[in-house]
Write a structure and sequence with these properties.
The chain has 313 residues and is α+β, with helices and mostly antiparallel strands. It has two domains: 164 residues, no CATH class; 130 residues, Beta Barrel (Cyclophilin). Helix content is 17%, strand content 28%. It is built from six helices and 21 strands. The strands form four sheets. A seven-stranded antiparallel sheet has the order 7-6-9-4-1-12-11, with no helix packed on it. Strands 13-20-17-18-15-14-21 form a seven-stranded mixed beta barrel. A five-stranded antiparallel sheet has the order 2-3-10-5-8, covered by helices on one side. β14 and β15 form a beta hairpin. The longest helix is centred in the last third of the chain and has 15 residues. The radius of gyration is 20 Å and the shape is globular.
């Protein structure tokens, strides 16, 4: 079996797949890739199943050696990857020679870069998923971020992997955006009309305290008509809670599965992967939309992601 050796892990590199949805009632968050679309596309480029495990790097990439060689693809944020001093093209499959070293640096644009390897990263699954949940220390490689000297096993790749690249039109359609579309939250009635206008008409900045658990927003305060806390209830990924301080928090992939703050809105499905590419201090706005539009956009995106003729240039 082939392998990947971690010479340098970068700032925060974890093994992630598409997560473990459906365990919320048991208190287990879905976890998985913060930008699942980028991981899916990377897997398709190297002949993997869309939900195979890859590496997620945050803000600063690592250095990896492939003793037996490999076919890889880099997607998501551009971390200035190099092999032997030569730039590595994003969004395309690449063949790495035995013993070659893949070096990534700081991000040049967005928050997270993904490394997909033909055959996938092989780790013991937890609740059917390879994804790492850092807070609980479960899943992934020993339930933690990668460290120098870690050796990851790779699966058997497809017998024939053709060199492919994602088309520019697809990348334009799926690119990160700073206007996040949202539907009304279940407690939107707890907020005054003035607070709603503040939320939808103003810009908020992603706090440096943000992580995979939640993205804290900094901006004008939102006042709730009722108490700042309520009876705890289940919460989905993308729910926007408002704390007693009046500041919103977007619950993310490693979220707690219940919450006791009122939810003014929820990020729609097609924009959830865009949350994973928001860097600290990035400014965002929220655009109100309907459930019908959100559903239509989701169907359209899934149709695109399952259409190889449209995906590849």
């Amino acid at each position: 079996m082939t392998s990947l050796v971690v010479e340098s892990p970068g700032l925060l590199t974890t093994v992630q797949d598409l997560g473990r949805p459906g365990f919320g009632p048991l208190g287990v968050s879905p976890s998985g890739a913060a930008d699942p679309v980028a991981l899916r596309l990377g897997n398709l480029l190297v002949g993997n199943a869309p939900d195979d495990a890859g590496l997620e790097m945050t803000l600063l990439g690592g250095t990896f050696v492939f003793p037996e060689g490999a076919v890889v693809a880099l997607t998501g944020a551009d971390f200035g990857a190099m092999i032997g001093g030569h730039p590595v093209e994003m969004w395309t499959s690449q063949t790495i020679s035995p013993g070659a070293k893949l070096v990534l640096g700081p991000t040049r644009n967005f928050a997270r870069s993904y490394l997909a390897v033909a055959g996938g990263i092989q780790v013991a699954p937890f609740l059917g998923s390879a994804s790492t949940h850092l807070l609980s220390g479960l899943g992934g490689h020993d339930g933690r971020a990668l460290r120098k000297g870690d050796v990851l096993k790779l699966g058997e790749p497809a017998k024939e992997i053709s060199c492919q690249r994602i088309s520019q039109s697809v990348l334009l359609t799926l690119k990160p955006r700073r206007v996040l579309r949202v539907t009304d939250g279940p407690q939107i009635h707890c907020f005054s009309e003035e607070a709603k206008q503040v939320f939808f008409r103003n810009t908020f900045q992603v706090s440096e305290a943000s992580d995979r658990t939640g993205l804290r927003m900094e901006g004008p305060s939102l006042g709730a008509k009722g108490p700042g806390e309520m009876i705890t209830e289940g919460v989905p990924v993308g729910a926007i809670q408002v704390t007693p301080s009046g500041q919103p928090i977007i619950l993310f992939v490693d979220q707690q599965t219940t919450g006791g703050y009122p939810k003014i809105a929820n990020v729609i499905g097609v924009d959830l992967h865009r949350l994973g590419q928001l860097r600290p201090r990035t400014e965002v706005r929220f655009e109100r939309t309907s459930l019908a539009v959100a559903r239509s956009l989701w169907i359209e995106q899934e149709r695109l992601l399952n259409s190889p003729r449209q995906l590849f240039a």
